[in-house]
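Two proteins follow. First one:
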Amino acid sequence: MIAAQDLSPAELAALLHFHADAGVDWLLEEAPVDRFAEFAAARPARSAPVQAAATSARQTERPADRGADVPQRQGATRSAPARGAPASPAVQQNVAMPDEQAVAAARFAAESARSLAELKTALEGFSGCNLKNSARNTIFTEGDASSGIMVIGPMPDADDDREGLPFAGKTGLLLDRMLAAIGLERSTIMLGNVVPWRPPGNRPPTQAEMDICRPFIERQIALAEPKHLLLLGNFTARFFFGGTGTIHTLRGQWRDVAAGHLVLPALASLHPQELLNAPASKSLAWQDLLMFRAKIAEG
């Protein structure tokens, strides 16, 4: 077993993030600790200052103050608050940007970018989507735009959010093997996600969140100018193709996808996570990969 003192600060931070994502609240110690007994013993110590403060307040309370709690007779007027008394602080609430304004702001920020580098900067500085508030990282498209090949997934998962890269963790390893089977490598193509921020609990993004993110992913495609698109997962296929079909009805067919001034051929297939959950579907994914390779070979 590797001891904690043998890990670097970066490795310790990664380990803590892993435990947090796994829902670990307590670390194992050498001897058992009765947390219930600790809590029961600490209760009197916590309540003592509160009781002392209440006793002191009653002793210093003036008669006029005590009479303020007596119900007033009918017809009597309630006295005004003492001058100089502090008013109750107003409750401040975070006002979210209306969806329509957020979509317009996203469209303006995306269209203003003239390169992928500018678009990444604009996306990292954009604050109109609530998903960014709970995500650790903004996941931007990475890879070689000159390849003419772009693979797009739905949204980052916990591994992607932690690493700050698309298709990390087990799904990324499986995708690497899938690409290698048809002669492609991660570093030689473009990889990205429809949504750049991980939704809390990996929940599906709302329609408003999808509308806000749409200008950015479409601009990424327009600036990268790929010749072939591989769309992975049910969510991604519906996002670009429309409709309510499942990935099993949308996969295996070349369809046109519009992104800015471009109209590109796109093929949908199963996401690596879907293959990890249902390994029997790998044969379907292999058929799609062969179709994708044949399209690339046509030039």
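Second one, unrelated to the first:
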Amino acid sequence: MPHEFTVRGSELLAQSPILALRRDRVEMPGGKVANREIVEHFGAVAVVALNEAGEIAVVEQYRHAVRRRLLELPAGLLDMSGEDELTCAKRELVEEAGLEAGNWAVLVDLVTSPGFAEEAVRVFLARDLREVPRPPAEDEEADMTVSWMPLADARDAVLRGEIVNSIAIAGVLATTEVAAGRATPRSVDTRFEYRPTSLAKRRTGPDLKQL
């Protein structure tokens, strides 16, 4: 029988507005208990917005962790209480790209760093697009630019190492398969099994200061 990795204890080490760090004491095979540090995360969504010309909307955004501007997909955190993934994706597509879509599907679900983080991302495919006004942006998003890139060029940019964001890579390659007729996206009603819950529950706990 497979081993059951039981948590024997847990402590909160640090927290910030968009993540927290906890240490779990986990029972290993043979009975040993080992510490495992876990980054708690709200989870996120991203959108491949594909127009009739075969182009996708890409954003270029400064990412301080790597000190560079990266080519990415419109995306955002699932940090609003009670908001489902599709509603979040629709909101982020308007806010970051100034677009609405008449057709939505699920492309892929990602667990980005399962060795130490809970972050999971649902990537949507949005088609039947129309432009709408973008709301005012703040912080890094005030510097964000939006452009259209042919899907084939985006695929080549992935392979040249010019698109390095893992979520964008997955979205571009999955969309390439769909556009070629080799894959079919899933319904938006498909349950997001890996959506994290720890941080959302912690933020609504009665004893914790809201950050």
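SUMMARY FIELD: The radius of gyration is 19 Å. The beta strands are 7-15, 19-27, 33-41, 44-49, 55-63, 68-72, 75-77, 99-111, 120-131, 145-150.
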